[in-house]
Write a structure and sequence with these properties.
56% of the residues lie in helices and 4% in strands. It is mainly α and 334 residues long. A three-stranded antiparallel beta sheet has the order 1-3-2. The protein starts with 8 loop residues before the first helix and ends with a helix.
Length: 334
């Protein structure tokens, strides 16, 4: 019965495991929480190097730290032409993790994906309104995958410890779904709700996430054929007050420097697409968190004192960067 019941026991256990990690991370300072996470996925050295850049006017040390991080990223994602074909990550132990570039990239991507889950999908605040919004999100993601019958939707959300009442189910379903024309037994998502998709929603499989992303990219291309297709990313739901420190983990400046380094490194190629995708999602999430934070609204980012923005835009040698930009502009035919 571990995987045959609906929802399977493995889903319940995964939710409990995630909650245990969230409780620990909420009680730790950001360096310890993120360090433990990246260490579990064999990527602690990347976070440590991102935390190394000094402040002040020591540009030589800043350049050296940035170069060390860039070298570490290159070694992490570089493909060894003489290596054996990639093998699947081992299921037990960490002794052989990172045996090739494919594994190392997969581990970094998994660390970023798990961080998204931990930060976004926290326990909800108390109260019936938060419970209704959680139920709404569950139904929405089921319908993002494909149209469903009412009985399937009911079974999917009523097997939890505290199943919703029929009235609660209807209150959550009616605003987001309608009966599909020509198939009166199927409920389909109402137009315009794709933007509420959460890329690390825990009760959606990786294959179903990929299906949703492909559908969103196809829809974006139909709207603007020449535009770069980009999947929508819904803002995180309200978190229980006890998990506020966990929600702000992506704002830790060394982590912002790591995201910046990954994205800069990706400009020259060599970074797995899923690592780039997760990095962009975490940057978007960080701005969403700031936008929802009454203590630090998004407008405050215009000030130079915002630690997150300073870290995200950190340049180890501003004069050299400005000169390179000027030379590139001068060489451009436009």
């Amino acid at each position: 019965n571990y995987s045959s019941i609906s929802p399977p026991l493995c889903r319940h256990f995964a939710d409990l495991d995630r909650l245990a990690v969230q409780l620990g991370a909420a009680a730790l300072p950001p360096a310890r929480a993120l360090g433990s996470l990246f260490g579990a996925f064999g990527s602690l050295h990347l976070l440590s190097l991102a935390a190394a850049p000094p402040g002040g006017a020591d540009r030589a040390a800043a350049r050296a730290a940035a170069a060390a991080l860039d070298d570490a990223l290159r070694e992490t994602f570089a493909k060894d032409e003489a290596a054996e074909p990639p093998i699947s990550p081992p299921r037990r132990g960490t002794a052989n993790w990172g045996a090739d570039a494919a594994q190392r990239g997969a581990m970094v991507e998994e660390a970023l994906r798990f961080l998204l889950q931990l930060v976004v999908h926290t326990p909800r605040p108390p109260g019936p309104q938060a419970a209704l919004l959680e139920l709404r999100s569950e139904l929405l993601h089921l319908l993002l995958i494909k149209p469903r019958t009412h009985s399937h939707l009911t079974d999917a959300v009523c097997a939890d410890d505290e199943p919703p009442t029929p009235e609660q189910l209807e209150a959550a379903l009616a605003p987001i779904a309608a009966l599909q024309p020509g198939s009166p037994a199927l409920w389909t998502l109402r137009p315009g709700l794709d933007a509420e998709y959460m890329p690390a929603f825990p009760h959606v499989s990786r294959a179903d996430h990929q299906t949703i992303l492909q559908r969103q990219e196809e829809a974006a291309r139909r709207v603007a054929r020449d535009a770069v297709a980009a999947a929508s990313q819904g803002a995180p739901p309200a978190a229980h007050p006890a998990f506020a420190p966990l929600r702000r983990l992506p704002l830790w400046p060394p982590f912002a420097r790591l995201l910046r380094a990954v994205l800069v490194h990706a400009v020259g190629g060599g970074v797995p697409p899923r690592v780039v995708e997760r990095s962009v999602q975490l940057v978007v999430l960080a701005f969403q968190i700031l936008d929802a934070d009454d203590a630090a609204p998004c407008a405050a980012l215009a000030g130079a004192s915002a630690p997150f923005l300073d870290a995200l835009c950190w340049v180890p040698d501003p004069e050299a960067a400005a000169a390179a930009a000027a030379n590139a502009a001068a060489a451009s035919p436009g």
